[in-house]
Amino acid sequence: MLFQRSLTRPALTGALTGLLLCASVPSALSAPAPYVPPRGTAYMGMGVLAHDGSTSDAGDGNTDDSSTVPRATQTEGVDVSSYQGNVAWSTLWSGGVRWAYTKATEGTSYRNPSFTQQYNGPYSTGMIRGAYHFATPDSSGGAAQADYFVGHGGGWSKDGKTLPGALDIEWNPYGDDCYGKSKSAMVSWIRDFLNRYKSRTGRYAVIYTATNWWTECTGNYGGFAANNPLWIAHYSSSAGTLPAGWKTYTMWQYTSTGNTVGDRDRFNGSTDRLKVLSTG
Fold first, then answer.
1. Which among 64, 79, 263, 265 is annotated as catalytic?
2. What global pTM score does this model have?
């Protein structure tokens, strides 16, 4: 009643209209929050299409043009993670696939629930297999993540059928591309992971990355090339420009749309050379 006495009818109508507009405008203008996948769901190459696409060679003299490498000297492989579920390994073998990497861990809290089938399956089929770790440098230290990886499937044995573990270091699917780290801090994190993996297994880990990410987030650091094999991600007709230090790649993820599992890779050598890598 006090509200009605203090306002005329036109004023009251205007006030109510204003209140309604104030109540409705924020919801009409608000934009949906960007989708952020839950932790643990990342997989090898998740950010390559979004950030890298099918870029052309930069022509800076550090290019490995695999279109000039005979396919007969390369060995087909695949990489898998939980989103593929149970994999038809016999089908892949029949299609010429001879090696596979399976995601084992992420950070220090995630383990692939499909790891057993995806890791033992290729081994039983006759393939040479390995495990990879999806790095999240914003969640814990490099040495801690290497320990977690080795403790949950990322180890190595000299049985001639197990490849050294791989560090998947690429665009952050959960936030800042470089996980909030400076270039020097990222290099230190990677070094901590690699050193701990070497001390735990006796093997140098494979580094999986994309050149654009490596340049953005490490400053194109070349200090790991002497010991750590490069697994380059580049969805094109050639592997493209490689990160500093590496003159050739050991593995190349060349597509995410291959038969059966999607992610397809090539080892830059024959199966005999692949066995050499597995035995160390």
1. 79
2. 0.83
